[in-house]
Design a protein that fits this description.
The chain is α/β, with parallel strands linked by helices. Helix 2 packs across helix 8. The chain is globular. The protein starts with a helix and ends in a 21-residue tail after the last strand. A four-stranded parallel sheet has the order 3-2-1-4, with helices on both faces. Strands 5-6-7 form a three-stranded mixed sheet, with helices on one face. It contains eleven helices and seven strands. It folds into two domains: about 160 residues, HUPs (Rossmann fold, 3-Layer(aba) Sandwich), CATH 3.40.50.620; about 80 residues, GMP Synthetase, Chain A, domain 3, CATH 3.30.300.
Length: about 280
């Protein structure tokens, strides 16, 4: 097991070998750290690419642009159209495969036009334990995962990002808005806007870590367990209900277990979709 300093050295050596990269940059801690190291090693031979679609919350678009500017990165925004693909919109358990096929395909095409040798992403060791059908798309498109290749775990990425003074070093995990729908529930741009609007309501009310799960006419709210009591305070809950109903939901439930990541994936722990 390599120590963190050794892993950082190995990462920088690997990036140097890759020579020129397009970094799939979501603004989360993993891709942000990878981008920062890529710029340190490769300079202007590192380019950040962010996929823009209805599944990205509008405030995340501005946040990712600000961070790229802070890092001094050449930053490209690319529109992607996975929501228009019925295989994606029907929301099967391998939905992410169709999304990543679209995103990585456009990233590879952009890398080719820029003369960049490789496309890289922020996949890391801890991601191996979750159900990640998008990894299959990465393999098919030839996308490299340097953090995984040299053995970075999530906690190590956060520590290394903090050492570089990256403002996102402690940013909560941020899955795309389509992850708020139970498998088999159709995804549409209008429903994604519903989710984005309601999660913005919660964040504005002081719940930065939250999820709004879409169950047709019912919104199921997840916040940190320590915040559930505050959410249920009459004045706050009534404001939440008012704004959620304005967004189109008829019933609003608070999940008593609170926020948890990957809940829909717990039953799919293999690298391939179930039969």
């Amino acid at each position: 097991m390599h120590g963190l300093s050794n892993k950082i050295t190995l990462l920088r050596e690997l990036l140097a070998e890759l020579d020129s990269v397009v970094v799939c940059f979501s603004g989360g801690v993993d891709s942000s750290y990878l981008l920062a190291e890529s710029i340190l090693v490769l300079g202007d031979r590192a380019t950040a690419l962010t996929a823009i679609s209805p599944s990205l919350a509008p405030e995340e678009r501005s946040a990712v642009q600000q961070l790229a500017k802070r890092l001094g990165a050449r930053h490209i925004l690319v529109d992607t159209y996975e929501v228009d693909d019925p295989r994606y919109a029907l929301n099967p358990v391998n939905r992410c495969y169709f999304c990543k096929t679209e995103v990585y395909g456009r990233a590879v095409a952009k890398a080719r036009s820029l003369g960049a040798a490789h496309v890289v992403d922020g996949f890391n060791v801890d991601d191996r334990s979750d159900y990640r059908p998008g990894k299959q798309a990465a393999r098919e498109q030839g996308v490299r995962s340097p953090l995984d290749e040299v053995g970075f775990k999530k906690t190590e990425i956060r520590t290394a990002a903090r050492r570089l003074s990256l403002p996102v070093w402690n940013k909560p995990a941020l899955a795309c808005l389509s992850s708020r729908f139970p498998y088999g529930t159709q995804i549409t741009p209008a429903r994604l806007t519903q989710i984005a609007t309601c999660e913005r309501v919660l964040k504005n009310l002081g719940f930065p870590i939250c999820r709004v799960r879409h169950h047709e006419k019912t919104a199921r709210i997840e916040v940190e367990p320590s915040s559930i009591a505050r959410l249920k305070q009459p004045d706050i809950l009534s404001e939440v209900v008012r704004q959620f109903q304005s967004a189109g939901f008829e019933q609003i439930d608070v999940d008593p277990q609170g926020y948890r990541t990957g809940g829909l994936n717990l039953q799919y722990e293999t690298s391939a979709p179930p039969e």
